[in-house]
Amino acid sequence: MTTLSEKFDGSLKEKVTRFPSILNPSSCFQCGKCTSGCTIMVLMENFPHRVVDMVKLGLVSELLRSDVIWACTQCQKCRDACPQNVNPSEIFIVLRNMSIIEGGSVPEAYMSMLSKVLESGYIQDVASVIGSDGLIYDRSKLGLVNLKGPRDMSIFQNNCMEAFQRSV
Amino acid sequence: MEYIIYPGCLSVTEQYSYEVSCINVLNHLGVDFTYAENVNCCGFPLRSLNSFGWIYLSARLISVLEDYNKPCILLCNWCHASLTYALKILSENEELTSWVNDLLSKEDLRFNGKLVFKHLLEFLYYDIGIEKLKSNIKRFMGGLKFSIHPGCLFFRPRDIDRPDNPYQPRILKDLVELLGAEANVHLDCCGWAIYKTNSDTGLTLAGNRIKTAYGTDGIIISCPHGGEMLDKYYNDACKTIGFNGEVPVLYYTQLLGLALGIDPKNLALNLNKSPVKSLLDKIGV
Fold it and tell me: Any CB–CB contact under 8 A between A105 and chain B?
């Protein structure tokens, strides 16, 4: 049987704190306020205080392989409820970043949003919508201005590619 | 005073009822504004992929908006939170700021961290002001009762300086009450972010939120993410939780526009997917 101390990975734990974010897993004293107020605790059996505890114990690699890091809707209730400024919602974000950097699977919806940003600057295509009158409306029919995304798309794309591949 | 406006991704690509009603309300109030150009997504929805990618996108948007030298009005809670958060992180991290500026310099842009920006609700509340709004009202909404939904990032998290109080947000409440209507605040999540990876959970959250407003005259929103979940996916959300009642979902700018006497055609009420007709009948339009 592997003991907790054998699974401890200090370097991964340290990496969690080096992303552009504000979080403090080490300050957690397991009061559980984050979990008791969690929007999706019941729906997805997510327990943020346990995730924070695992980070604190250095069990980050276990989390990076788990789907639990994607079970957060970023409502920020846990971040507001925490008396220690641990910011569990931010820990979920950074664990997702680390999982992807380590080669973990990326949800399709996120890849789609990134590819649209690279194409146009926006996270999705400009849509035509159907009104309650059965007619189809687009921006010009609604009298809305043409969108003007990044002027130099090739520099924008190169910068995005570089930024989205940065690691710690 | 001239303003620049950046509506954000969702408003300009599908949540047209927000953008159309917003620009017509601003025009009606005599606000001088132009659309920002050379813009991009603030990156907040992509933070899950890579936080450095996010900070680059937000820094780029800030630097583009800064070049206008005018205050900026944002329509989206996510953009507002994203720019606030990026400014805070970059102001405390020289290495990151210098990295971002190296990238931006390739486009002759520079992040200075001086952008003045506000959410549309803040603009209406503080810059236009309750008194001026009240004095322009043609149609009072007395007797109506709304369940209002400012959206998570308008008042959470408090450690990055949100426009409103996290437990008793009052800006949207006051803005609805000045129309003569009653307003009860709800602090729950619309489910947008989780919908991206687990649509059932997202729709359940949206459906539950809609159901809590049953018996009121509707939900009033002010973020395009809420618009997508509560209005665009209204039928799917109700179906997911087995709810059959009717709850109109409107943007605040649509409700305000009706109160100001703006022609309903210019408020894009025909684009709402939730059942707004019963409310319009009650208001008499």
Answer: no
